[in-house]
Design brief:
The chain has 4 helices and no strands. It is rod-shaped and about 105 Å long. The chain has 2 domains: 4-62; 63-147. It is mainly alpha-helical and 148 residues long. 81% of the residues lie in helices and 0% in strands. The mean pLDDT is 83. The protein has helices at residues 4-27, 35-93, 103-133, 142-147.
């Protein structure tokens, strides 16, 4: 996008040049052979305004889409918070009622809990990235780090 302002300035100069040519033709009362040629002059004249109007409409559309995205993300985060609460309960209760003599069972539960925490940590990072992209305040997920 960094070249876009330069391109717009270049096109603006080209439009001005084209309008000068049409101005000269008008001064000499030049009659266009086809109406399409005459229409080109006014399409050229109006194209910057049309472009700005399209940019504005697209900006409005993108704002609405951003709002939808943020609302969906907030709903997902609420569900995520519930899952984090469940994982927190599992972490808290991990060492209770475990028979450490049955190390295979303990290892299986530990791996499953570790996988849940890894998934939650990755998901939290993604939510924070999305919040940055949408200029929203990042949610603090330090509780996941503590559980890990």
């Amino acid at each position: 996008m960094s070249g876009a302002p330069g391109e717009i300035a270049k096109l603006k100069n080209e439009i001005a040049s084209g309008m000068k040519v049409y101005g000269i033709l008008n001064e000499f009362q030049y009659q266009f052979g086809e109406e399409e040629d005459f229409d080109r002059q006014w399409r050229l004249f109006g194209s910057p305004g049309d472009t700005y109007e399209k940019i504005q409409k697209q900006g409005n559309y993108l704002d609405k889409e951003k709002d939808k995205f943020v609302n969906i993300m907030k709903q997902d985060q609420n569900e995520f918070d519930t899952k984090i609460g469940e994982v927190q309960n599992e972490v808290t209760a991990f060492d209770q009622n475990l028979d450490f003599n049955n190390y295979v069972e303990v290892a299986v539960k530990a791996r499953a809990l570790h996988d849940k925490l890894t998934t939650a940590s990755n998901q939290a990072k993604q939510y924070n990235k999305n919040e940055q992209l949408t200029n929203n305040e990042e949610t603090n997920y330090d509780n996941i780090k503590e559980m890990v």
